[in-house]
Design brief:
Blueprint: E1 14-17, H1 22-33, E2 38-42, E3 57-60, H2 67-75, E4 83-87, H3 90-98, H4 100-103, E5 107-108, H5 114-121, H6 123-132, E6 140-143, H7 146-155, E7 160-164, H8 169-174, E8 180-182, H9 188-195, E9 202-206, E10 215-222, E11 228-240, E12 246-252, H10 256-269, E13 273-281, E14 288-295, H11 302-307, H12 312-321, E15 337-339, H13 341-353, H14 359-365, E16 370-372, H15 381-405, H16 412-417
Parallel strand pairs: 1-2, 1-4, 2-3, 4-5, 15-16
Antiparallel strand pairs: 6-9, 7-8, 7-9, 10-11, 10-13, 11-12, 12-15, 13-14
Helix pairs in contact: 3-5, 5-6, 7-9
Length: 418
Amino acid sequence: MQITNRDAKDAPPAIIIGLDSLNGLQTARLLAARGVPVIGIARDRSHPFARTRACREVWEADTGGRGFVEKLVAEGPALGGPAVLVPCQDMAVLHCSRHREELAPWYRMVQPEPEVVELLMDKLAFQEWAIREDLPIPPTRILRYRADAEAAARDLTFPCILKPTLKTTLWQDKAASGVYRVDRAEDLMPLYDECAAWTPVLVIQERIEGSDAELFSCNCYIDRKGEPVATFVARKIRQWPPGAGTSSLGEEIRNEEVLHETLRLFAAADFRGLGYVEMKRDARTGRHYVIEPNIGRPTGRSALAEACGVELHYAAYCDALGWPLPEQPGQTYQGTKWLYLRRDIQTAFHYWRTGELSLREWVRSWRGPKTWAVYAPGDLRPFFADWALALRQAILGRERARKKHAPKRLGPAAEAEN
């Protein structure tokens, strides 16, 4: 990636809320490459992704609560004109919607009506609405209380996927994964008891049979008039953690059913802005099921769309300002792949140990044109810092495990007695 600043003196800045996330890093780079001056907001300025040179400055604020709203209001008058908000995490999307009037004097963003945001972000409300709209969703239970989890353990067919209705800041801090796979009914209650402390309501869904490669997605941008001006279909090849995580290797692909259901869902909701729907194809029946929508923010593989010429991010930026939208050539289906190198090494090693992936198959899966999630020749600090952080965490984890399992030393008195 080559970062340029052409026309930066004339273009209003884009404010990336959640720079210390993969979505934030990729979005900052893509808009900077388009000549847009970028300001990042990070909860942790020392995070590897917050070290990108794509931003002209980085502010530190709580991106999971009102903290970033207060920072935006404080900085707004000094910006010299309207800036474009680009939330990159779920809680940031929610707070941008709930505080839209407070932010309106200084910031622009294309959003649907507040009730649409709440509907599509609340997994409980979405599940009930999806049933009314006859959308294809897997068997699901809402877990408000422990008794709901006990009933789900009796009624559902396992394996299942457990996930939060909303990824709160506490969930992001505590959870080892965005979602958890529950293989047996008896495994649900211990996991529920742990996760229930991190988010008010949980959702459990029957897992649709099939590998990671049966997970498809459609990214789209729907303009302020309600027109889907950009769409892009992709699929996962591998994800971390395996079976219930985020993509480590993905590729563009043709899937008309996923495209159709995505546009049908967002049209039914009267949605505007950046949207994403993940669907899974049942390996036994070939039927596709909606897993979840994500709205109002970029996703990991939306950068793959940009690499293939579908400009989701810049379209959102232009539409927020009332500028003409970039021409979209449409998806060309060249088989371009998106690779998060560090995560895919972890995933491939896991599958190699279980005998599900050979070294030859792994190398073959990387073939073809690629775009990188973190690696960028003109912006290497996030890449190396990400590896360094992972190495420190691995060493720390081993040290903790060693101390946990080390034999306890007896005190002097006890040693004397023995």
